[in-house]
Amino acid sequence: MRKRYGVQNVFMSDIIKAPPNVAASGPYVFADILDFKRLQELIVTHNIDWIVHFSALLSAVGENNVPLAMRVNIEGLHNVLELSKQYKLKLFVPSTIGAFGPDSPRNPTPDLCIQRPRTIYGVSKVHAELMGEYYYHRFGMDFRSLRFPGVISADTNPGGGTTDYAVHIFHDALQTGDFTSFLRRDTRLPMMYIDDCLRSVVQFMELPNKQLKQRTYNVTAMSFTPEELVAEVRKHVPHLKAKYEADSRQKIADTWPEVFDDSNARADWGWKHDYDIKGLCDIMFEKLRPVYDTDTHLDAKDGKQKLTAA
Fold first, then answer.
1. Are 259 and 190 in contact (CB under 8 A)?
2. Angle at which helices 120-139 and 76-87 pack, to 10 degrees?
3. Per-residue pLDDT tens for 142-173?
4. Active site residue 121
5. pLDDT recorded at residue 293
6. Active-site residue among 28, 87, 121, 134?
7. Sign of CA dihedral 115, 117, 121, 127
8. 26-55, pLDDT tens digit by residue?
């Protein structure tokens, strides 16, 4: 966004201190999503006209702290909705495959169907979708939302989501050569590389209102299982060992879509992904190999490859 709109025109915010590279990249401000007055001050002071609202506790983390998830995911949403109405802002709130539940069709999952999620994360995202549509129809506020699948990035650490095994595997492959999936080997879920995810947001936000036939769309790029991802990763790290030990996140994954139907986004505003599973693995290893500076060698005693992190 800074490359597209200008460094000084995009304000990043969080409640944590910015890493040096982020602090040096442009305006960065402290903003607690639960502090209405502070958010109001930032909007007025910096003449904000868009809000991209990413603040949320993810699926597994939210289940471990439901009261905090309710505050951040629901009360925080109410703050940005009201501020967007008051100051006539364009508001983007991401949604998720977690907004669907065990009663939803899973393969494929369309934009409009029964949802009924069973996590506080999913419930809060359905709430966001419905409240956003209400504010759009009731007050004319420009609300937009995309339902994302699992989003995979080399630049950030896993944040406690049910799809995070698909990030862990790349780090584990390069660091130890041993990977343990917390989902069953045959658990199919939709996924997307971060560049596709962020490009979809910019493309979607730039669209004129009249081109949108709905306020919330599914977007995706690929669907795979842990076993299929392991097979693709082994093309880069042949000695990777993998095992499957399902934990509490398996119950969440079993209620989520296996394949996302994003045909409406592709038809209405030309959405198209760039990265499939092969492209995903290629770019993840391209970005992570220099980070780990690994040295793969053969063990003289047993002839097996071992991985040593410098």
1. yes
2. 20
3. 999 999 999 999 987 777 789 999 999 999 99
4. yes
5. 76
6. 121
7. positive
8. 999 999 999 999 999 999 999 999 999 999
